[in-house]
Known about the structure:
Blueprint: H1 12-49, H2 51-54, H3 60-117, H4 131-181, H5 188-215, E1 224-227, H6 228-246, E2 249-253, E3 259-262, H7 264-281, E4 287-295, E5 298-305, H8 327-333, H9 340-350, E6 355-359, E7 379-386, H10 389-406
Helix pairs in contact: 1-3, 3-4, 4-5, 5-9, 6-7, 7-9
Amino acid sequence: MTVPGRRRSRSLVWRVFGSYIVVVAVATVGALVAGEAFAPFLLERHMRSMGPMMGQGGDPMAAMTADLADAYRSALTQSLAWAALVATAAAALVAWWVTRRLVGPLADLREASGAIATGNYQRRLDADAPGEIGDLAGSFNTMAEALERGEAIRRQLLSDLSHELRTPLSNLRGYLEALEDGVFALDAPTSAALGQQVERLERLVADLSLLAGLEAGQVAVVVAPMDLADLVGDSAAAFRTRFDERGVDLAVEAPTGLVVRADANRAAQVLENLLDNALRHTPAGGRVTVRARPDGAFARVEVRDTGPGVPEALREAVFRRLYRGDPARAAAQGEGSGIGLTIARELVVRQGGDIWVEDADPQNAGEARDGAPAGGGGACFVFTLPRSPATARGQRATARGRDAGAA
Length: 407
């Protein structure tokens, strides 16, 4: 594939300019050759016709001079006419060849664009052509590859979305048919079950709407200085009851005074999505630890659990839309929309940070055995946020004060 922006040995401007130079050169050479070929022949023919004139009366030199002048003009005119004819033919042939060389790749581009427009994203061009045409072909191939990947993602998204919608809709239909047949009574447990399915649909629709807004740049993210300890403490407090009900211990380690530049609401949404994900994957009796600490120009927030962990091969996939590592387990535990981690990644990136997953305890993370994926050391989801410049200056001043006191 051609690298965009790569300098090529022959630019299209110079190729076109050079083609015209070639045409002019061919025309000039053709005119000279034709002139050299026809002028002597015409002049010699006229000289032979002057023989009878030498025997006539009068001034033979004056008559011959006048006749030579006329013959020269006639020979020159005829030779230039033949030269122009030959030069025109030669120039036309060269121009036709050059035009075909230039128009051919453009015609291929037109056909390939038409194929792309009809959905044939596998069409590619020859990117080895010289000059801007090769660069254009390389850019076209890059665009076609991006469209092909986008189409594959779109189809997968529609397939996953239809599956996600089908489950709660089928459950709702089953409950309604059972109510109509009198199998179930509309009591409190049945109403609660129906409400859970409706909430699942609402959550999925809301998450999809938020994700679409984030990817379109339509969700405002307003960053301002905030204490990271407050964010961690408030989010943990909101989840404390749910953790207690599941029998999972929740620990928080966040120093005060660690100020970051972030959107308080969006940063809280990121942490809550990670806490919800950790709770769903940590068995009863397990432990989830939220830890915040400085990391250079950023603040690092870790959400560690004692669940099965995430295999290294899947650590990028978990941030894809509607990704489910274990669909059966997800259905049994009422897993979320499958978009929470995708939203978390978009929100973190919009705030100038990064997010990834690693082993919570690398020493306990086993290798793949008997076809089972590697993991087992728990998962540690990490995201970073830029620290406030005022905080960094304050810490440097405090460090200088300690050094001065020690001296």
